[in-house]
Amino acid sequence: MPYTFLPDTSVVxxxxxxxxxxxxNLDEYKPVQKNRITKTDTLTIILSRVMLxxxxxxxxxxxxxxxxxxxxxxxxxxxxMENRIDIKIVGERPKLDEIRLNPGGELxxxxxxxxxxxKSILITADEVQSSIALVEGIDVLFTVNIPERKDESHELALxxxxxxxxxxxxxxxxxxxxxxxxxxxxxxxxxxxKINDIEMAxxxxxxxxxxIIRQAKNDEKSFIERNESGVTVIQLxxxxxxxxxxxxxxTHEITAVKPLVSLTLEDYKLSQKVYERLxxxxxxxxxxxxxxxxxxxxxxLALFYLxxxxxxxxxxxxxxxxVPKEVSQYAPLAGSLEGTADILLLVRPDYTxxxxxxxxxxxxxxxxxxxxxxxxxxxxxxxxxxxxVQRFIRRVELGVIPNVIDTIIFIDQGQVAEVLSLEMTVKKxxxxxxxxxxxxxxxxxxxxxxxxxxxxxxxxxxxxxxxVGKRKYRNKTPKKKKRSNFSSNFNALDLESDDLIQTxxxxxxxxxxxxxxxxxxxxxxxxxxxxxxxxxxxxxxHGEIYIKNNSPIYSRIKNALQKGKKIQASxx
Length: 572
Fold this sequence. Notes:
This protein is an alpha/beta fold. Helices cover about 30% and strands about 30% of the residues. The strands form five sheets. The protein has a ten-stranded mixed beta sheet, with helices on both faces. The protein has a seven-stranded antiparallel beta sheet with strand order 8-7-6-12-11-10-9, with helices on one face.
Protein backbone atom coordinates (compact mmCIF):
# COMPACT_ATOMS: atom_id res chain seq x y z
CA MET A 1 0.00 0.00 0.00
CA PRO A 2 1.39 3.45 -0.91
CA TYR A 3 1.94 6.31 1.48
CA THR A 4 0.84 9.95 1.38
CA PHE A 5 3.24 12.56 0.01
CA LEU A 6 3.37 16.34 0.29
CA PRO A 7 5.51 18.18 -2.33
CA ASP A 8 6.99 21.62 -1.73
CA THR A 9 7.46 24.29 -4.43
CA SER A 10 10.95 23.09 -5.41
CA VAL A 11 9.74 19.75 -6.80
CA VAL A 12 6.78 21.43 -8.48
CA UNK A 13 8.89 23.91 -10.42
CA UNK A 14 11.40 21.26 -11.51
CA UNK A 15 8.56 18.80 -12.31
CA UNK A 16 10.09 16.02 -10.20
CA UNK A 17 6.71 15.29 -8.61
CA UNK A 18 5.24 14.38 -12.01
CA UNK A 19 8.32 12.33 -12.89
CA UNK A 20 8.06 10.30 -9.69
CA UNK A 21 4.34 9.63 -10.06
CA UNK A 22 4.54 8.58 -13.71
CA UNK A 23 7.55 6.30 -13.13
CA UNK A 24 6.16 4.72 -9.98
CA ASN A 25 9.06 5.88 -7.80
CA LEU A 26 6.67 6.92 -5.03
CA ASP A 27 4.98 3.51 -4.91
CA GLU A 28 8.32 1.87 -4.17
CA TYR A 29 9.45 4.39 -1.54
CA LYS A 30 10.04 2.98 1.95
CA PRO A 31 9.93 5.66 4.68
CA VAL A 32 12.14 5.52 7.75
CA GLN A 33 9.61 6.68 10.36
CA LYS A 34 6.90 4.13 9.56
CA ASN A 35 5.15 4.56 12.90
CA ARG A 36 3.66 7.94 12.07
CA ILE A 37 3.26 7.80 8.27
CA THR A 38 -0.24 7.30 6.85
CA LYS A 39 -0.88 4.43 4.41
CA THR A 40 -3.65 4.58 1.83
CA ASP A 41 -5.09 2.26 -0.78
CA THR A 42 -4.15 4.65 -3.59
CA LEU A 43 -1.29 7.06 -4.05
CA THR A 44 -2.29 10.26 -2.24
CA ILE A 45 -0.71 13.65 -2.95
CA ILE A 46 -1.24 16.29 -0.27
CA LEU A 47 -1.06 19.87 -1.55
CA SER A 48 -0.31 22.62 0.93
CA ARG A 49 -2.25 25.86 0.49
CA VAL A 50 1.03 27.65 1.22
CA MET A 51 2.61 26.02 -1.84
CA LEU A 52 -0.44 26.77 -3.98
CA UNK A 53 -0.34 30.41 -2.84
CA UNK A 54 3.31 30.72 -3.91
CA UNK A 55 2.52 29.36 -7.37
CA UNK A 56 -0.51 31.64 -7.73
CA UNK A 57 1.40 34.72 -6.59
CA UNK A 58 4.33 34.20 -8.94
CA UNK A 59 2.07 33.34 -11.88
CA UNK A 60 0.14 36.57 -11.31
CA UNK A 61 3.43 38.45 -11.69
CA UNK A 62 3.49 37.24 -15.33
CA UNK A 63 6.88 35.57 -14.96
CA UNK A 64 7.42 33.05 -17.73
CA UNK A 65 8.97 30.31 -15.60
CA UNK A 66 6.03 30.33 -13.20
CA UNK A 67 3.71 28.93 -15.85
CA UNK A 68 5.57 25.68 -15.17
CA UNK A 69 4.05 25.58 -11.69
CA UNK A 70 0.55 26.00 -13.08
CA UNK A 71 1.21 23.33 -15.70
CA UNK A 72 2.26 20.85 -13.00
CA UNK A 73 -0.90 21.55 -10.99
CA UNK A 74 -2.97 20.91 -14.12
CA UNK A 75 -1.13 17.64 -14.75
CA UNK A 76 -1.72 16.52 -11.16
CA UNK A 77 -5.42 17.24 -11.59
CA UNK A 78 -5.42 15.24 -14.83
CA UNK A 79 -3.79 12.28 -13.06
CA UNK A 80 -6.48 12.47 -10.40
CA MET A 81 -9.21 12.43 -13.06
CA GLU A 82 -7.57 9.27 -14.44
CA ASN A 83 -7.81 7.71 -10.94
CA ARG A 84 -4.04 7.35 -10.73
CA ILE A 85 -3.75 9.53 -7.61
CA ASP A 86 -5.89 11.16 -4.93
CA ILE A 87 -5.35 14.86 -4.19
CA LYS A 88 -6.09 16.48 -0.85
CA ILE A 89 -5.51 20.12 0.07
CA VAL A 90 -4.48 21.01 3.62
CA GLY A 91 -3.44 24.03 5.63
CA GLU A 92 -4.24 27.71 5.30
CA ARG A 93 -3.08 30.50 3.05
CA PRO A 94 -0.12 32.39 4.53
CA LYS A 95 -0.79 35.65 6.32
CA LEU A 96 0.85 38.97 5.44
CA ASP A 97 3.39 38.79 8.26
CA GLU A 98 4.36 35.27 7.23
CA ILE A 99 4.85 36.38 3.62
CA ARG A 100 7.10 39.22 4.77
CA LEU A 101 9.21 36.74 6.75
CA ASN A 102 9.55 34.40 3.76
CA PRO A 103 13.21 35.35 3.02
CA GLY A 104 14.03 33.77 6.39
CA GLY A 105 12.21 30.53 5.51
CA GLU A 106 8.81 31.18 7.11
CA LEU A 107 6.78 29.70 4.23
CA UNK A 108 9.00 26.61 4.14
CA UNK A 109 8.31 26.16 7.85
CA UNK A 110 4.56 26.30 7.20
CA UNK A 111 4.89 23.63 4.49
CA UNK A 112 6.80 21.39 6.92
CA UNK A 113 4.04 21.90 9.50
CA UNK A 114 1.42 20.80 6.96
CA UNK A 115 3.49 17.69 6.20
CA UNK A 116 3.78 16.85 9.90
CA UNK A 117 0.10 17.46 10.69
CA UNK A 118 -1.07 15.38 7.71
CA LYS A 119 1.39 12.57 8.53
CA SER A 120 2.81 12.78 5.03
CA ILE A 121 6.23 12.31 3.49
CA LEU A 122 7.72 15.65 2.44
CA ILE A 123 9.15 15.66 -1.10
CA THR A 124 11.71 18.42 -1.66
CA ALA A 125 14.70 19.36 -3.81
CA ASP A 126 15.82 21.93 -1.22
CA GLU A 127 18.72 20.65 0.89
CA VAL A 128 18.00 23.07 3.76
CA GLN A 129 14.33 22.13 3.78
CA SER A 130 15.27 18.44 3.84
CA SER A 131 17.72 18.80 6.73
CA ILE A 132 15.38 20.83 8.93
CA ALA A 133 12.47 18.47 8.25
CA LEU A 134 14.49 15.44 9.38
CA VAL A 135 15.39 17.21 12.62
CA GLU A 136 11.70 17.98 13.18
CA GLY A 137 10.81 14.30 12.83
CA ILE A 138 9.32 14.53 9.34
CA ASP A 139 10.09 11.77 6.88
CA VAL A 140 11.66 13.28 3.75
CA LEU A 141 12.12 12.22 0.16
CA PHE A 142 15.10 14.34 -0.97
CA THR A 143 15.09 14.28 -4.78
CA VAL A 144 18.86 14.63 -5.21
CA ASN A 145 19.20 11.11 -3.77
CA ILE A 146 16.79 9.66 -6.37
CA PRO A 147 18.23 8.47 -9.72
CA GLU A 148 16.95 10.74 -12.47
CA ARG A 149 14.94 9.41 -15.37
CA LYS A 150 15.63 11.02 -18.72
CA ASP A 151 12.37 12.87 -19.30
CA GLU A 152 11.38 12.72 -22.95
CA SER A 153 9.58 16.04 -22.67
CA HIS A 154 12.79 17.67 -21.41
CA GLU A 155 14.81 16.19 -24.23
CA LEU A 156 12.12 17.27 -26.65
CA ALA A 157 12.61 20.90 -25.64
CA LEU A 158 16.18 20.86 -26.89
CA UNK A 159 15.27 18.78 -29.92
CA UNK A 160 12.45 21.17 -30.78
CA UNK A 161 14.95 24.00 -30.98
CA UNK A 162 17.50 21.95 -32.87
CA UNK A 163 14.88 20.95 -35.41
CA UNK A 164 14.89 24.57 -36.60
CA UNK A 165 18.70 24.72 -36.94
CA UNK A 166 21.06 23.40 -39.56
CA UNK A 167 24.80 23.87 -40.05
CA UNK A 168 24.35 27.35 -41.55
CA UNK A 169 21.72 28.70 -39.12
CA UNK A 170 22.83 31.54 -36.86
CA UNK A 171 19.50 32.23 -35.15
CA UNK A 172 15.86 31.16 -35.19
CA UNK A 173 12.90 33.52 -34.77
CA UNK A 174 9.50 32.10 -33.81
CA UNK A 175 6.51 34.44 -33.50
CA UNK A 176 2.80 33.87 -33.05
CA UNK A 177 0.70 33.95 -36.25
CA UNK A 178 3.90 34.17 -38.34
CA UNK A 179 6.09 31.81 -40.30
CA UNK A 180 9.22 30.57 -38.51
CA UNK A 181 12.31 32.42 -39.74
CA UNK A 182 16.03 31.76 -39.55
CA UNK A 183 19.16 33.80 -40.20
CA UNK A 184 21.47 31.67 -42.31
CA UNK A 185 25.02 32.37 -43.40
CA UNK A 186 28.05 33.72 -41.61
CA UNK A 187 28.61 36.85 -39.48
CA UNK A 188 28.23 39.89 -41.72
CA UNK A 189 27.01 37.78 -44.64
CA UNK A 190 23.63 36.28 -43.82
CA UNK A 191 20.07 36.22 -45.12
CA UNK A 192 16.69 35.86 -43.40
CA UNK A 193 14.84 32.81 -44.73
CA LYS A 194 11.60 30.94 -44.06
CA ILE A 195 12.03 27.62 -42.29
CA ASN A 196 8.69 26.29 -43.50
CA ASP A 197 5.31 27.55 -44.71
CA ILE A 198 3.32 26.76 -41.55
CA GLU A 199 2.24 29.65 -39.33
CA MET A 200 2.91 29.10 -35.64
CA ALA A 201 0.09 29.52 -33.13
CA UNK A 202 0.83 31.43 -29.90
CA UNK A 203 -0.19 28.36 -27.91
CA UNK A 204 2.40 26.28 -29.77
CA UNK A 205 5.14 28.81 -29.04
CA UNK A 206 4.03 28.97 -25.41
CA UNK A 207 4.35 25.19 -25.10
CA UNK A 208 7.83 25.26 -26.62
CA UNK A 209 8.79 28.04 -24.20
CA UNK A 210 7.56 26.10 -21.18
CA UNK A 211 9.54 23.03 -22.25
CA ILE A 212 12.66 25.15 -22.69
CA ILE A 213 12.23 26.54 -19.17
CA ARG A 214 11.83 23.04 -17.72
CA GLN A 215 14.97 21.90 -19.54
CA ALA A 216 16.95 24.87 -18.22
CA LYS A 217 15.87 24.11 -14.65
CA ASN A 218 16.99 20.47 -14.84
CA ASP A 219 20.18 20.84 -16.88
CA GLU A 220 23.27 21.76 -14.86
CA LYS A 221 24.82 23.34 -17.96
CA SER A 222 21.80 25.62 -18.46
CA PHE A 223 20.33 28.44 -16.41
CA ILE A 224 17.67 31.11 -16.42
CA GLU A 225 19.56 34.39 -16.75
CA ARG A 226 16.65 36.80 -16.34
CA ASN A 227 13.00 36.37 -15.49
CA GLU A 228 10.98 39.57 -15.71
CA SER A 229 7.35 40.34 -16.37
CA GLY A 230 6.77 39.00 -19.88
CA VAL A 231 10.45 38.27 -20.61
CA THR A 232 12.69 35.32 -19.83
CA VAL A 233 16.33 35.06 -20.94
CA ILE A 234 17.75 31.54 -20.88
CA GLN A 235 21.13 30.06 -21.63
CA LEU A 236 20.23 26.52 -22.72
CA UNK A 237 23.64 24.90 -23.12
CA UNK A 238 25.06 26.75 -26.17
CA UNK A 239 21.74 28.33 -27.13
CA UNK A 240 20.88 31.83 -25.96
CA UNK A 241 17.10 32.02 -25.90
CA UNK A 242 14.87 35.05 -25.31
CA UNK A 243 11.21 34.32 -24.62
CA UNK A 244 8.79 37.25 -24.90
CA UNK A 245 5.15 37.19 -23.85
CA UNK A 246 2.38 39.76 -23.37
CA UNK A 247 2.30 42.37 -21.89
CA UNK A 248 5.94 43.01 -22.85
CA UNK A 249 5.37 41.78 -26.41
CA UNK A 250 2.14 41.91 -28.37
CA THR A 251 2.34 38.16 -28.95
CA HIS A 252 4.36 35.12 -27.93
CA GLU A 253 7.85 35.09 -29.39
CA ILE A 254 11.03 33.03 -29.10
CA THR A 255 14.46 34.01 -30.40
CA ALA A 256 17.20 31.36 -30.21
CA VAL A 257 20.83 32.10 -31.09
CA LYS A 258 23.75 29.70 -31.19
CA PRO A 259 27.45 30.18 -31.97
CA LEU A 260 28.04 29.14 -35.54
CA VAL A 261 31.80 28.72 -35.55
CA SER A 262 34.73 28.64 -33.14
CA LEU A 263 37.94 30.22 -34.42
CA THR A 264 41.45 30.91 -33.23
CA LEU A 265 43.45 34.08 -33.82
CA GLU A 266 45.39 32.24 -36.53
CA ASP A 267 42.18 32.08 -38.56
CA TYR A 268 42.10 35.90 -38.71
CA LYS A 269 45.49 36.10 -40.49
CA LEU A 270 46.78 38.90 -38.26
CA SER A 271 50.24 40.36 -38.68
CA GLN A 272 52.99 39.67 -36.16
CA LYS A 273 52.85 43.31 -35.10
CA VAL A 274 49.19 42.93 -34.10
CA TYR A 275 49.97 39.71 -32.19
CA GLU A 276 52.64 41.55 -30.23
CA ARG A 277 50.19 44.36 -29.52
CA LEU A 278 47.54 41.96 -28.20
CA UNK A 279 50.16 40.37 -25.97
CA UNK A 280 50.88 43.65 -24.15
CA UNK A 281 47.67 45.67 -24.62
CA UNK A 282 45.53 45.95 -21.48
CA UNK A 283 42.73 48.27 -22.59
CA UNK A 284 41.20 46.73 -25.71
CA UNK A 285 37.88 47.60 -27.31
CA UNK A 286 36.36 45.12 -29.76
CA UNK A 287 33.80 47.04 -31.82
CA UNK A 288 31.44 46.20 -34.63
CA UNK A 289 27.84 46.09 -35.71
CA UNK A 290 25.44 43.48 -34.26
CA UNK A 291 26.11 40.15 -35.96
CA UNK A 292 29.49 41.24 -37.33
CA UNK A 293 31.38 38.49 -35.48
CA UNK A 294 32.54 40.21 -32.28
CA UNK A 295 31.65 37.29 -29.99
CA UNK A 296 33.50 34.83 -32.22
CA UNK A 297 36.62 37.00 -32.11
CA UNK A 298 36.32 37.34 -28.32
CA UNK A 299 36.32 33.55 -28.01
CA UNK A 300 39.49 33.38 -30.08
CA LEU A 301 41.09 36.14 -28.00
CA ALA A 302 40.22 34.35 -24.75
CA LEU A 303 41.88 31.19 -26.06
CA PHE A 304 44.94 33.25 -27.05
CA TYR A 305 45.34 34.56 -23.49
CA LEU A 306 44.81 31.11 -21.98
CA UNK A 307 47.61 29.76 -24.15
CA UNK A 308 49.77 32.58 -22.79
CA UNK A 309 49.13 31.20 -19.26
CA UNK A 310 46.86 34.11 -18.34
CA UNK A 311 43.89 33.94 -15.96
CA UNK A 312 40.78 35.07 -17.85
CA UNK A 313 37.29 35.94 -16.53
CA UNK A 314 34.23 37.43 -18.20
CA UNK A 315 31.77 40.04 -16.99
CA UNK A 316 28.43 39.58 -18.76
CA UNK A 317 24.87 40.71 -18.19
CA UNK A 318 23.80 37.62 -20.13
CA UNK A 319 26.40 34.84 -20.03
CA UNK A 320 26.32 33.83 -23.67
CA UNK A 321 29.93 34.20 -24.82
CA UNK A 322 31.34 31.03 -26.35
CA VAL A 323 34.60 30.84 -24.41
CA PRO A 324 36.78 27.88 -23.32
CA LYS A 325 35.69 26.01 -20.19
CA GLU A 326 38.72 27.36 -18.30
CA VAL A 327 37.19 30.86 -18.42
CA SER A 328 34.85 31.74 -15.54
CA GLN A 329 31.77 33.68 -16.64
CA TYR A 330 30.40 36.11 -14.04
CA ALA A 331 26.90 37.61 -14.05
CA PRO A 332 25.66 40.75 -12.23
CA LEU A 333 25.88 40.29 -8.45
CA ALA A 334 22.55 41.16 -6.81
CA GLY A 335 21.52 42.72 -10.11
CA SER A 336 24.55 45.03 -10.28
CA LEU A 337 27.72 44.73 -12.34
CA GLU A 338 29.45 47.01 -9.83
CA GLY A 339 29.26 44.25 -7.23
CA THR A 340 30.72 41.78 -9.71
CA ALA A 341 33.54 44.21 -10.47
CA ASP A 342 34.41 44.30 -6.75
CA ILE A 343 34.65 40.51 -6.71
CA LEU A 344 36.83 40.53 -9.84
CA LEU A 345 39.35 42.70 -8.02
CA LEU A 346 39.54 40.02 -5.32
CA VAL A 347 40.05 37.07 -7.68
CA ARG A 348 42.78 38.98 -9.55
CA PRO A 349 42.38 37.91 -13.18
CA ASP A 350 45.04 38.87 -15.71
CA TYR A 351 42.34 39.76 -18.25
CA THR A 352 38.63 40.42 -17.90
CA UNK A 353 36.31 40.37 -20.91
CA UNK A 354 33.54 42.94 -20.42
CA UNK A 355 30.71 42.03 -22.77
CA UNK A 356 28.21 44.63 -24.00
CA UNK A 357 29.53 47.94 -22.60
CA UNK A 358 26.46 50.13 -23.14
CA UNK A 359 25.15 52.14 -20.20
CA UNK A 360 26.79 55.02 -18.35
CA UNK A 361 27.45 52.75 -15.35
CA UNK A 362 29.10 50.18 -17.65
CA UNK A 363 31.54 52.80 -18.96
CA UNK A 364 32.26 53.94 -15.40
CA UNK A 365 32.96 50.36 -14.29
CA UNK A 366 35.19 49.82 -17.33
CA UNK A 367 37.18 52.97 -16.55
CA UNK A 368 37.49 52.24 -12.81
CA UNK A 369 38.68 48.67 -13.35
CA UNK A 370 41.14 49.70 -16.04
CA UNK A 371 42.63 52.42 -13.83
CA UNK A 372 42.89 49.83 -11.05
CA UNK A 373 45.29 47.91 -13.28
CA UNK A 374 43.01 45.13 -14.52
CA UNK A 375 43.57 44.09 -18.13
CA UNK A 376 40.26 44.63 -19.91
CA UNK A 377 38.73 43.62 -23.23
CA UNK A 378 35.48 45.53 -23.80
CA UNK A 379 32.84 44.68 -26.39
CA UNK A 380 30.83 47.59 -27.82
CA UNK A 381 28.38 48.06 -30.68
CA UNK A 382 29.64 50.61 -33.21
CA UNK A 383 29.23 51.21 -36.93
CA UNK A 384 32.79 52.62 -37.24
CA UNK A 385 35.93 52.02 -35.21
CA UNK A 386 36.17 55.64 -34.04
CA UNK A 387 32.60 55.45 -32.71
CA UNK A 388 33.84 53.11 -29.99
CA VAL A 389 36.00 55.93 -28.59
CA GLN A 390 33.28 58.54 -29.01
CA ARG A 391 31.02 56.55 -26.70
CA PHE A 392 33.53 57.14 -23.89
CA ILE A 393 33.50 60.93 -24.40
CA ARG A 394 31.60 62.72 -21.60
CA ARG A 395 31.43 59.43 -19.68
CA VAL A 396 35.15 59.27 -18.92
CA GLU A 397 37.38 62.32 -18.49
CA LEU A 398 38.98 63.21 -21.81
CA GLY A 399 42.54 63.09 -20.48
CA VAL A 400 41.98 59.64 -18.98
CA ILE A 401 40.69 57.95 -22.16
CA PRO A 402 44.17 56.88 -23.47
CA ASN A 403 44.86 55.30 -20.07
CA VAL A 404 41.59 53.36 -20.27
CA ILE A 405 41.75 52.40 -23.97
CA ASP A 406 44.96 51.71 -25.85
CA THR A 407 43.74 49.50 -28.72
CA ILE A 408 40.56 49.34 -30.82
CA ILE A 409 39.80 46.28 -32.95
CA PHE A 410 36.96 46.76 -35.43
CA ILE A 411 35.23 43.61 -36.70
CA ASP A 412 33.35 43.67 -40.00
CA GLN A 413 31.91 40.69 -41.89
CA GLY A 414 33.62 38.32 -39.47
CA GLN A 415 37.11 39.74 -40.15
CA VAL A 416 39.42 42.20 -38.40
CA ALA A 417 38.86 45.27 -40.56
CA GLU A 418 40.84 47.84 -38.53
CA VAL A 419 43.22 48.02 -35.60
CA LEU A 420 43.63 51.49 -34.10
CA SER A 421 45.87 52.76 -31.32
CA LEU A 422 45.38 55.74 -29.00
CA GLU A 423 48.02 58.03 -27.57
CA MET A 424 47.92 61.32 -25.67
CA THR A 425 50.21 64.17 -26.70
CA VAL A 426 50.40 67.94 -26.28
CA LYS A 427 50.52 69.77 -29.57
CA LYS A 428 48.78 72.22 -31.86
CA UNK A 429 45.77 70.44 -33.42
CA UNK A 430 46.03 69.86 -37.15
CA UNK A 431 44.88 72.96 -39.05
CA UNK A 432 45.53 75.41 -36.20
CA UNK A 433 47.92 78.21 -37.13
CA UNK A 434 48.70 79.76 -33.75
CA UNK A 435 51.16 77.88 -31.54
CA UNK A 436 49.49 79.37 -28.49
CA UNK A 437 46.55 77.07 -29.23
CA UNK A 438 48.56 73.96 -28.28
CA UNK A 439 46.64 71.65 -25.99
CA UNK A 440 46.36 67.97 -24.97
CA UNK A 441 45.33 65.99 -28.04
CA UNK A 442 44.39 62.32 -28.29
CA UNK A 443 45.78 60.87 -31.50
CA UNK A 444 44.02 57.89 -33.07
CA UNK A 445 46.30 56.10 -35.51
CA UNK A 446 46.13 53.11 -37.79
CA UNK A 447 48.17 50.68 -35.72
CA UNK A 448 49.63 48.71 -38.61
CA UNK A 449 50.97 51.70 -40.60
CA UNK A 450 50.96 54.46 -37.94
CA UNK A 451 48.78 56.73 -40.12
CA UNK A 452 47.18 59.55 -38.10
CA UNK A 453 43.42 59.31 -38.68
CA UNK A 454 41.68 61.35 -35.97
CA UNK A 455 42.42 63.90 -33.29
CA UNK A 456 40.30 64.42 -30.19
CA UNK A 457 40.66 67.63 -28.21
CA UNK A 458 38.73 70.12 -26.13
CA UNK A 459 37.72 73.32 -27.89
CA UNK A 460 36.02 75.71 -25.53
CA UNK A 461 33.19 73.81 -23.88
CA UNK A 462 33.04 71.26 -26.70
CA UNK A 463 34.96 68.09 -27.49
CA UNK A 464 36.00 67.85 -31.13
CA UNK A 465 36.65 64.58 -32.94
CA UNK A 466 38.39 65.76 -36.10
CA UNK A 467 39.28 63.44 -39.01
CA VAL A 468 42.71 64.59 -40.12
CA GLY A 469 44.26 61.78 -42.14
CA LYS A 470 43.46 59.74 -45.20
CA ARG A 471 43.21 56.06 -44.43
CA LYS A 472 45.18 53.76 -46.67
CA TYR A 473 43.06 50.68 -47.27
CA ARG A 474 45.70 48.02 -47.37
CA ASN A 475 43.70 45.19 -45.81
CA LYS A 476 41.81 42.54 -47.72
CA THR A 477 38.46 43.10 -46.06
CA PRO A 478 35.80 43.61 -48.74
CA LYS A 479 34.29 47.07 -48.73
CA LYS A 480 30.54 47.29 -48.93
CA LYS A 481 30.54 51.04 -49.57
CA LYS A 482 32.61 53.26 -51.76
CA ARG A 483 34.55 55.78 -49.70
CA SER A 484 34.55 59.46 -50.53
CA ASN A 485 37.72 61.10 -51.76
CA PHE A 486 38.12 63.72 -49.07
CA SER A 487 40.62 63.12 -46.31
CA SER A 488 38.22 62.87 -43.38
CA ASN A 489 37.35 59.27 -44.32
CA PHE A 490 33.64 59.87 -43.70
CA ASN A 491 31.29 58.31 -46.22
CA ALA A 492 29.89 60.71 -48.80
CA LEU A 493 26.21 61.50 -48.19
CA ASP A 494 23.45 60.98 -50.68
CA LEU A 495 21.29 64.07 -50.13
CA GLU A 496 18.30 62.39 -51.71
CA SER A 497 18.29 59.39 -49.37
CA ASP A 498 19.87 60.48 -46.07
CA ASP A 499 17.84 62.30 -43.44
CA LEU A 500 19.84 65.47 -42.82
CA ILE A 501 19.33 67.81 -39.89
CA GLN A 502 18.66 71.42 -40.86
CA THR A 503 20.65 74.09 -39.02
CA UNK A 504 20.63 77.84 -38.55
CA UNK A 505 23.89 79.82 -38.44
CA UNK A 506 24.21 83.14 -36.58
CA UNK A 507 27.06 85.56 -35.97
CA UNK A 508 27.94 85.82 -32.30
CA UNK A 509 30.95 87.48 -30.62
CA UNK A 510 33.02 87.41 -33.82
CA UNK A 511 32.25 83.73 -34.26
CA UNK A 512 29.42 81.55 -35.51
CA UNK A 513 26.71 79.78 -33.52
CA UNK A 514 25.18 76.77 -35.24
CA UNK A 515 21.71 75.99 -33.93
CA UNK A 516 19.80 72.71 -34.34
CA UNK A 517 16.57 71.50 -32.81
CA UNK A 518 16.62 71.17 -29.01
CA UNK A 519 16.01 67.42 -29.42
CA UNK A 520 19.66 67.08 -30.51
CA UNK A 521 21.05 68.49 -27.28
CA UNK A 522 24.19 66.73 -25.99
CA UNK A 523 24.26 64.56 -29.12
CA UNK A 524 27.26 63.97 -31.35
CA UNK A 525 26.66 65.31 -34.88
CA UNK A 526 28.58 65.46 -38.16
CA UNK A 527 28.34 68.73 -40.11
CA UNK A 528 28.43 68.93 -43.91
CA UNK A 529 28.32 71.40 -46.79
CA UNK A 530 26.71 69.41 -49.60
CA UNK A 531 28.79 66.21 -49.71
CA UNK A 532 31.83 67.67 -47.94
CA UNK A 533 32.41 66.96 -44.27
CA UNK A 534 33.31 70.05 -42.20
CA UNK A 535 33.69 68.79 -38.64
CA UNK A 536 32.11 66.69 -35.90
CA UNK A 537 31.21 67.83 -32.41
CA UNK A 538 28.90 67.32 -29.44
CA UNK A 539 26.04 69.82 -29.11
CA UNK A 540 25.48 71.70 -25.86
CA UNK A 541 22.39 71.55 -23.63
CA HIS A 542 20.52 73.88 -26.00
CA GLY A 543 21.29 71.98 -29.21
CA GLU A 544 23.87 74.60 -30.21
CA ILE A 545 27.60 74.82 -30.84
CA TYR A 546 29.80 77.93 -30.94
CA ILE A 547 32.72 78.21 -33.41
CA LYS A 548 35.34 80.82 -32.54
CA ASN A 549 36.91 83.01 -35.22
CA ASN A 550 40.41 81.63 -34.56
CA SER A 551 39.32 78.11 -35.45
CA PRO A 552 40.15 76.63 -38.87
CA ILE A 553 36.53 75.50 -39.01
CA TYR A 554 35.45 79.15 -38.86
CA SER A 555 36.96 79.97 -42.25
CA ARG A 556 35.30 76.95 -43.87
CA ILE A 557 31.90 77.99 -42.54
CA LYS A 558 32.48 81.58 -43.66
CA ASN A 559 33.40 80.52 -47.20
CA ALA A 560 30.35 78.26 -47.43
CA LEU A 561 27.99 81.00 -46.27
CA GLN A 562 29.49 83.53 -48.69
CA LYS A 563 28.78 81.10 -51.53
CA GLY A 564 25.20 80.70 -50.37
CA LYS A 565 25.63 77.08 -49.34
CA LYS A 566 23.70 75.47 -46.51
CA ILE A 567 25.28 73.78 -43.53
CA GLN A 568 23.53 70.58 -42.58
CA ALA A 569 24.13 67.90 -39.96
CA SER A 570 23.73 64.16 -39.65
CA UNK A 571 23.90 61.61 -36.87
CA UNK A 572 25.49 59.03 -39.19
